[in-house]
Amino acid sequence: MSHFNEMAAQWDSEDKIQMMKTLADQTKALLNNKSPIDIMDFGCGTGLFGLEFADQAKSLLGVDTSEGMLEIFNKKTEGHDNFQSQLIDLENENLNKKFDLIVSSMAFHHLKNPMAMIQKMKTMLNPDGKLAIVDLDHEDGTFHPDNKAMGVQHHGFSKEDIASWAKEAQMKLDHHIINKVHKNDKDYPQFLAIFS
User: Fold this and answer.
1) Is 180 helix (H, G, I), strand (E, B) or coil?
2) pTM (global) more than 0.85
3) CB count, 10 Å around CB of 53?
4) pLDDT over threshold 60, residue 1
């Protein structure tokens, strides 16, 4: 986690801001939410993805395990009482709250057990609630410059992986490739998986 605390101050690069906006715009278009709703952004970082949903949010809770990231998230949301953050490791702790929508962008490849997280999130949804997970399509391990230092547990996820989570959690799955990141002379597709 020290990696993310150290990186927090420089996290919001132009590239990241643009990528997260693109991902959020695609996600919002495919979700077609009725507003206003209660939203949780899992692995929110500095809020680049989740805060793009601010116009739909009755409330928005950003959760992360990095204090450094949440400090920046909190600065961005000052004066908005309905936007809050919580320092919590949801893999090992529970959060007794319910949401209409749980979003997560580029956090799942850091989880030890993504399927268990889907099942936990399912219990945190209101009736008709949805999970919207954005992450890397399965890749060869070259996306991150240093997988170990950056806490990478998975080199993305195939559509089959994600379908197995949905089946296990008894949820419907809507899967789309919504963006490509070009680096290292190759394209790394990013998916959106909507579980309902």
Assistant:
1) strand
2) yes
3) 21
4) no
